[in-house]
Amino acid sequence: MQLVLEKRAERSNTIALISPLIAIGLTIVTMVILFAILGKNPLLALQAYFIAPLTDSYSLQEIAVKATPLVMIAIGLSLCYLANAWNIGAEGQFLIGAVAGSWIAVKTQGTDAGAWVLPVMLVLAAAAGALYALIPAICKVKFGASEILTSLMLVYVADLFLDYLVRGPWRDPHGFNFPTTAEFDPVATVPLLIEGGRLHLGSIIALLVVAAVAILLGRTIKGFEIRVVGAAPRAARFGGFNSNQLIILTFAVSGALAGLAGIIEVAGPVGHLQPGISPGYGFTAIIVAFLGRLNPLGILIAGLFLALTFIGGEQAQIAMKIPLDVTKVFQGILLFYVLACDSLILYRFKLVFPNRQVARGTH
Amino acid sequence: MQAHQRMLDPTANSLHSGESPLFRTIGLTKRYGDFLANDSIDIDIWPTEIHALLGENGAGKSTLVKAIYGLIQPSAGQICWRGQPIVQSGPSEARSRGISMVFQHFSLFDNLTVAENVALGLDGKESFKDMSARLEQVSKTYGLPLDPKREVWQLSVGERQRIEIVRALMQDPQFLILDEPTAVLTPQEADQLFVVLERLKAEGRAILYISHKLEEVKRLCDTATILRGGKKVETCNPRLETAASLARMMVGGEIKEVKAAAGRQTTVPRLVVNDLSLAPGEAHGVRLEHISFELKGGEILGIAGVAGNGQDELFAALSGERLSKDPGTIVIEGLAAGHLSITQRRKLGAAFVPEERLGHGTAPRMKLSENALLTGHAASGMVHHGFIDTAATLKTVDRATKTFDVRKAKRDPEAASLSGGNLQKFIVGREILRNPAVLVVSQPTWGVDAGAAAVIRQALLDLATAGAAVLVTSQDLDELAEIADRIAVMFHGHLSAPLATSEATRERLGLLMGGSTLEPKEAAHAVGA
């Protein structure tokens, strides 16, 4: 008896829908084993991870707050990945966006600048993220440099640049030497949706982005171009679509969305610029994009799920002393299973029994 | 048990009663999922015999041959070698028994020499020097001249095939399998190959000759086994059959004849190419050299030639997938278009059908409606203000389905799920329904079943009758003779002056395909070579 992978005649839409669920199931099984090895009660750990955060309003809001940057970045990344352009550097574009937007906030600090501050911060952050993403895109188109490497390396450049700013020129003079800017003025802050709560305007912007990209991909010729260039490059050229232009475009859009997510995070939940504003949103968003099947609606759901693991991870650390890094392990295993399960969309498992009719002959 | 009964079957081959065949399959079956690629096939191969394996694309020829050569394992049935049942675990085991195969697609390394390529394909342990000497000797003995020191990329397709044949012969095979060997040869090169095959037969070897060219099979082969839909239809003596009767067995019915409308009028020039030269886009590509022709409305120009002589490059230049610096080199509908993109050329009224159906002509994993949009977005009212009109794309699918009899499982399946013939009918239909002024089509019926091929050829003729200019590149001379008004030949990036189809005999075309010009003296020289 033999287990073989057999190609399906046509892609299975059912599997396309349930493959992320299979992946999540397999990840949970693996985590149970991991918790047991760590000497923790697996059931209690799962409860802390996945159930506890859903039971109080503060945690629920916190999930939405964490999901906001994840969804915005992942939506941008999904455009790149659909077009076969591999932007791995969203984390850097996120940080650069945060820096560019913070520049206005820092410069207008304590002045009587009006309501224009926040919109300008958002626009500037998006523009900076887009420009930063264009560096690997142009290197790819002009020189054939691998965008995977260049975009990833630029993450560390952005990280160190932010570090330099908050330890040097932008450091809060009254901040007891902590590497941080002063708290942003109210005009430079993303407004809350509920007074005294955590939910902010950024979540609405994220929902608008999801809707806009869903329409772009499903209804417009540009979205079709993006999908064809990724799915069949030669057919796309025959269709008259220029793949280089699309690499530039998708990198710019994904950079802009990551930059926007960056400034919303800084001017929203964090309130000032400091190192460590991102617990790896730009990287986790890669998992969100694939778990969501590169589909806007799927990404929204996947973003909420991954946000749950962040919150659950914190709760599990507090309640059960499970290291926070276990959350990263969880996310990594999840991506692994998502990619593995995706092969079931085009292939299926089949049991093959050796054929007794074939003669075992002499040689 | 089933197999046992068949072994006792007395009808196997009455000519050779008493002896056992060199090679035989009994009830050979190969199943892929629910699909029976080979359904219980019995075939006997005798020494001193050239045995044709005939069938349309998808009839199961390749599967059968792969099972014979050990590349795949049959799901059921038996293979016998010299009367003994065997299991063929792989090609090297087949070669060690004395079975060799020459594939249709060569497995040669372009940057290695002839001798190095041969050495890589041999299992033996002889030194490179001995092997080279033997290579020269074998190639001399059989009249297959080869320079062992030349690198493969410098060689013509015919010469490359020679390497494969010599490599096979160096293993002194008793049973040689050739997969569509003349597909890439000029008629003259094919004649030379037949001399070699006759000689191998006279030496007592068995040859399995896979082809769909019926005249060739009638001329060369002693026996023919015909496959259709994975089943064996018949084993017969092709010399006692007519091409028409063989075709009927292959297709399982009469093939619709293609009819040109009488009194087709040619009108104004719609596609003009002026002194087009273009450097190759990739290493070992072909440079287009001073190509000029004029194609009027109502006319079909055929371009013949052995594959790899610049046809792909010409298609890319005409379609606009590669741009030419000088706009005037390509004129579509009276407008200089050499610098225009493929989309702009489509807007001028041009349409294109590339050779490769999956991955070039269509995105395989996208729906037909999306593939209609792929070329239709330029000028077919499928896009309004950047938004896709899904109803319009579906309408194109429905119209192509109806007009060209595209068979598919549902209304809008993925392109990859259609059979080759049906997908090609869809692609040709998609372009013709745009009412193009100029249609450039490459290998319109390559790998397509006879029924679909007839539909497509008729559609091209009808399009010309309606006033369009049609350019057809094909390696199938019969196809060009059937539909083209004039035929030109591509060789090493040059295009010959077109001949009227009535004057384009196989001999004249063959000479042009081999690089001769039609001066009487040189023509005679080429025949002698």
Mean pLDDT of chain A: 90
Broad shape of chain A: globular
Per DSSP, the total helix count of chain A is 13
Rg over CA atoms of chain A: 23 Å
Strand content of chain A: under 5%
Compressed to H and E, one letter per element, the order of chain A equals EHHHHHHHHHHHHHE
**Assembly state of the chains shown:** heterodimer
Could you provide a short overview of the structure?
The complex is a heterodimer of chains A (363) and B (529). Chain A has helices at 13-38, 42-51, 57-82, 90-107, 117-143, 147-167, 201-219, 221-231, 233-239, 243-270, 281-291, 296-320, 325-346, and strands at residues 2-7, 347-352.
What does this structure look like?
The complex is a heterodimer of chains A (363) and B (529). By secondary structure, chain A is mainly α. Chain A has helices at residues 13-38, 42-51, 57-82, 90-107, 117-143, 147-167, 201-219, 221-231, 233-239, 243-270, 281-291, 296-320, 325-346; strands at 2-7, 347-352. A two-stranded antiparallel sheet of chain A has the order 1-2. Chain A is globular and about 75 Å long. Mean pLDDT of chain A is 90; it is low at 356-363. Chain B is an alpha/beta fold and 529 residues long. In chain B, strands 13, 16, 19, 20, 21, 22 and 23 form a seven-stranded mixed β-sheet that branches. Chains A and B meet through α8 and α9 of A and β4, β5, α11, α12 and β18 of B.
Keywords:
heterodimer; A: 363 residues; mainly alpha; two-stranded antiparallel sheet; 13 helices; 69% helix; globular; disordered C terminus; B: 529 residues; alpha/beta; 7-stranded mixed beta sheet; 6-stranded mixed beta sheet; 18 helices; 34% helix; disordered N terminus
Write the layout of secondary structure elements.
The complex is a heterodimer of chains A (about 375) and B (about 525).
Chain A: E1 2-7, H1 13-38, H2 42-51, H3 57-82, H4 90-107, H5 117-143, H6 147-167, H7 201-219, H8 221-231, H9 233-239, H10 243-270, H11 281-291, H12 296-320, H13 325-346, E2 347-352
Antiparallel strand pairs in A: 1-2
Chain B: H1 2-7, E1 23-32, E2 35-45, E3 49-54, H2 61-69, E4 76-81, E5 84-86, H3 91-97, E6 99-102, H4 114-121, H5 128-141, H6 157-169, E7 175-179, H7 187-202, E8 206-211, H8 214-220, E9 223-228, E10 231-236, H9 243-251, E11 269-278, E12 288-296, E13 300-304, H10 311-319, E14 330-332, E15 335-336, H11 342-347, E16 350-353, H12 368-376, E17 383-384, E18 387-388, H13 390-404, H14 420-432, E19 438-442, H15 450-465, E20 469-473, H16 477-483, E21 486-491, E22 494-495, E23 499-500, H17 506-513, H18 520-528
Parallel strand pairs in B: 3-8, 3-9, 6-7, 7-8, 13-20, 13-21, 16-19, 19-20
Antiparallel strand pairs in B: 1-2, 1-4, 4-5, 9-10, 11-12, 11-14, 14-15, 17-18, 21-22, 21-23
Helix pairs in contact in B: 4-5, 4-6, 12-13, 12-14, 13-14, 14-15
